[in-house]
Design brief:
single chain, alpha+beta, Alpha-D-Glucose-1,6-Bisphosphate, Chain A, domain 4, 3 helices, 5 strands, 29% helix, globular
């Protein structure tokens, strides 16, 4: 099955890329997609910095997630496509991925 979600985020492509291109984050997102309570080993299948990032599971159950980034006005359009064996909750997982990418970065105040 295939599921998709799309949103324009008020962040630059480099900011979003910095969050998305993180192996632990990719493993956690994949766990959500395939219904695992533990991170799932993944391998990156496509990486074009600030444009495309795709990864898949390294075994069973099968899952694949692809992110595509495009500049749009004052932000970045992010499309998420997932291929998966089950339809249960996939769209909600993709929305969670977009929520996490859209969340403001929390930075401590700098001391003078």
């Amino acid at each position: 099955m295939e599921s998709k979600a799309k949103r324009t985020l008020v962040k630059s492509a480099p900011e979003i890329w910095g969050l998305a291109d993180d192996l632990a984050r990719m493993e956690a997102w994949m766990a959500g997609l395939v219904g695992s309570t533990h991170p799932v080993d993944v391998e990156v299948t496509d990486r074009e910095p600030e444009r495309i990032l795709a990864w898949r599971t390294c075994g069973v159950p099968f899952g694949r997630i692809a992110l595509e980034f495009a500049e749009k006005g004052f932000g970045t359009a992010v499309s998420v496509t997932a291929q998966h064996a089950t339809s249960t909750g996939a769209e909600a997982i993709l929305e969670q991925v977009l929520d996490e990418l859209a969340a403001p970065e929390r930075r401590p105040f700098a001391h003078a």
